User: What shape does this take?
Amino acid sequence: MAIRTALTEAFGLEYPIVSAPMASVSGGRLAAAVSNAGALGLVGGGYGDPGWLREELSLARNEAKRPWGVGLITWCVTHETVKLALSYEPNTFMLSFGDPRPYVPTIKEASCKLICQVQDVEGALAAEAAGADFIVAQGTEAGGHGTERTSTLPLVPAVVDAVSATPVLAAGGIADGRGLAAALMLGAHGVLVGTRFYASIEALGHERAKERIVAARGSETKRTEVFDLVRGLRWPEDYTGRALRNDFLERWDGWEEKLATAPDSEAEAFRQAEQNGETDIAMVWCGEAADLISDVPTAAELVQRVGAEAEACLRSGDGLVNL
Assistant: This one.
């Protein structure tokens, strides 16, 4: 059995799975491994650091034998950063958290397919009007940045109905083949998966962070702006990041205004904790699907596992209908 959707057809995929472009986690090696396994791997360009982008995009271009892409955070991206990323010839470009319109012409001129991630129906309609080739409907269960507006289950079909001419991908709380099969039944053409790929061998995250994800429960996650404030990042209103609770979060939760004006020594200690993998201080972005993650396999194993489980779920669905 092969699952065929607009996503698999557009990129010649074996599985309708996309690895999320997680900043500082989804490097070139992870993106290439996902793509080579038959899914679509995205490099997480994050805030657009040129040096990091050059290194990781070069890895992706050299190691990927099949289509791959890159993702950036829209509200802080520049035309120069977009052009830098496009110079490595990705097959697709994902923009999240902001108005994509200023960058659409440049992306389209490069014959690169545009993926826009949204968190509500209004955002989906705007993305479709801007020329998105695919729209990711991200529910609040997702790890990392997003909103607290709507869960994946009601959001995906609502977006599918609103933008019927544009294929939709589901994101948020999806970590196995059951989630992929469910997303397809909601009308999605595939899924964007983040936390599950964070806990993979090729991901750039610290090994201690991966171990924390494996041991975590979804109930241990929380949406917060604490980790952005300590890093000096002022995200637009409504966007928070879902991460695992730790000592640093418990210390500053409710004291965000004080943290925003804390001495530089606080930020420096946090940076050191990030580098050293001190997960009691540094954030571990993690979605509510943590309960479904119990190991740290290769990205290829994950792609094949999720794809095979989804196919099995879809086959078994026939048995639920009494013909």
